[in-house]
Amino acid sequence: MKDNQILLALESSCDDTSLAIFQWTQLLALRTHTQLLEHQETRWVVPESAARLHADNIFPLLEKVLQDANMQLTQLDYIACTFEPWLVPSLLVTKSVAKVLSSRLGIPLLPIHHIEGHLFALLLGRSLKEIDFPLLAMTVSWGHNEIYLWRSLYHFERVAFTRDDSAGEAFDKVSKMLGLPFPGGPHIARYAQAYRERPGTWSLPSFPLPKFHLHDGIGEFSFSWLKSAVKREIDLRLAKNGGLNETDRCEIAYAFEEIVTQYLSGALYTMAEYYWEVESLWLCGGVSANDRLREVIVSDKRYAKYKRLTVPLEKRFSLDNAAMIGMRAYYTQESQLEE
Ligand code: KG4
Ligand code: ZN
Q: What is the pLDDT of residue 192?
């Protein structure tokens, strides 16, 4: 890709419709519509409703992002779009738009893998010189919870995955059980913080911290146990008091956030110790926006062995966004030129 070429990136794998415009590696504009209000009733993403909303939002967003970047459609040189994985109806919307634009404008379409996008969010606002390979990357979101050993720019392999749910899914389910809005992560974090800030008499539930499994270099997460433990605690309190009050919410949110963050951090260090060549740590995906998770990782005594924990430069780069898709697309092109 030449340094004056323009790329449009599209992402709609779940409930965010996101479009970005790049000139080479320079992000010119990013617009994201998050279907926050629309999913409050179910407090969950229903794939078909999400797809309908993407279809409603994509063209107004396209106009806005072009305006922000001061560009015309005809100036585009490349289109990049998330092709997989996640909600098929959602993915189909941007895929179809990307295919039509690419064929009408006669420009290449680059299909991008969503999780690789999260990995390459590392390079949003950073130069390659700032990256210390090999690094261990944890992607932790609603749809995925994985760890990658990222040896050099074009070489990464998945070394841990989840057997059932992800941490983000657990945040959202616990939030729903507590009667809090969707998506749950930021609300759980807010209630946990309220607990920390209010000294008093609390009765904290104690959720078990399971062992993270590692066999032959491959790690396995599991989160369903935690959702069940929270449900049991809520059922006990409901049976005793007939409802949940703000104190219950603070206590449960705090205890839950502590266990999830310790579990994730412990898993990251278990994998980093196994892959002894790792020099640096990278945390990405929606749950990487969680301040407590960042704090737990860097306050572990094992942290001293690594150069740094890198997190997305802006919180909007943690969540699903088209800028990470554009960045992945740029490096996909570059790697093909090098081969
Ligand atoms: O990466 P993302 O936008 O979507 C997927 O690719 O799945 O992540 C969304 C997830 C949601 O589950 C949301 O609750 C969680 O990220 N999340 C958080 C925080 N902000 C978003 N979880 C914990 N703490 C946060 N501050
Ligand atoms: Zn994601």
A: 96
Q: Is 11 helix (H, G, I), strand (E, B) or coil?
A: strand
- Is the pLDDT score of 295 beyond 70? yes
Tell me the Ramachandran region of residue 109: left when phi exceeds 0, alpha when psi lies from -120 to 50, beta otherwise: beta
Among protein residues, the one whose CA lies closest to atom 2 of ligand 1: 286
CA distance 266 to 293: 11
Using CA atoms, how far apart are residues 293 and 57, in angstroms rounded to an integer? 33
Burial class of residue 110 in the structure, from the number of CB atoms within 10 Å of its CB (0-12 exposed, 13-18 middle, 19+ buried): buried
Evaluate whether 76 touches 7 at the Cβ level (below 8 Å). yes
How is residue 242 annotated by DSSP? S
Average pLDDT over residues 313-338: 91
Which protein residues touch ligand 1 with a CB less than 6 Å away? 14, 141-143, 168, 171-172, 183-186, 189, 285-287, 289-290, 319-320
CA distance 219 to 157: 12
**Alpha carbon distance 274, 218 (integer Å):** 10
pLDDT of residue 338: 67
235 CA distance to ligand 2 middle (Å) = 31
Rg of the chain in Å (alpha carbons): 21
Position 119: which residue type?
L
